[in-house]
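Here is an idea for our session: we take a single protein and study its fold together. Start from the sequence, derive the backbone structure tokens from it, and show both lines together. Once you have written the record down, we can walk along the chain together:
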Amino acid sequence: MRRDMKIALLTGGTGGVKLLLGLCKVLDPHNLKIIVNTGDNFTWNGLYIAPDVDTVVYALAGMLDLSKMWGVCGDTFHFLVQAEILGLESTWFRIGDKDLAMHVLRTHLMKRGYTLSQVTRYVCERLRVLAEVIPMTDAHVETHVLTEIGDLHIQEFLVKYSRSLTPLGITIKGVEEAEATREAINAIKSSDAVVLGPSSPPVSILPILLTRPIGDLLRRLDRPKIAISPLIGSRPVSGVTDRLLRALGYRGDVTGVAELYSKYGVTHMVVHKDEREDNIELIRGLGMEVIKENIVMESLDQAARLAERVLKLALSGS
């Protein structure tokens, strides 16, 4: 296995971060560039929050609470408790005491004129993160979900309402005007392979693909582009990806993921080892190679085995 392969990983939340931790076990982190969804970003009580960026940074710094796959391990919530006593609004978004420092720092620096990319790079240096963490854009983009009670920010849909509402449509506001960071473009161009992590395609990966010129760049890129399914058939490994796919007009199963990704030139699709043969044939009909593997990552060892398989695909191209 070549630990010097250059991999560009597109990721958002839980599944992609688990794969990221696996990649760090089998790849030199210096050769790993992570392009992170920023469609989850929003302002919380005056603080600028970048949930997926922070989850990736905490994971690489060894600080992530792996039991929740968000926040800082061992964090306390004294600030939030006191804030609720004092009547602070929007306490549905659970920010811990150590985590709070990240948001205060980011907001402070961005108000002084630093970009999200510059702040992220600075924080990674302070936390001695070896891999490069790259926000997809420095423009502000917000993913919204239309529900039976109205239009909600993705974090409201996922956290405030605990995914209990029916997604009827998805809008990624501001993405038409957003441009990818120079670092994101260079990461893709210089990579030996591009990997689309098993984060939710409609709300964690699609915002990256729609950020100019990433989608067009991937279509033209003549090297392995490997996507890992976040679903086993129509059952999400975590979350509500099936319902979100249907909200975009795709089938709520692994073939819906493949149809979405086929528009961006994905060459390989990793599906669960027990995936139905009719689904596999449909994916092959979209022009992708299909690889059966255990995509459930309940331990770091399982994540590393999946990551190793992905790197072998990147090396062989088949």
Summary: The chain has one domain: 7-316. Residues 84 and 91 are 7 Å apart (CA to CA).
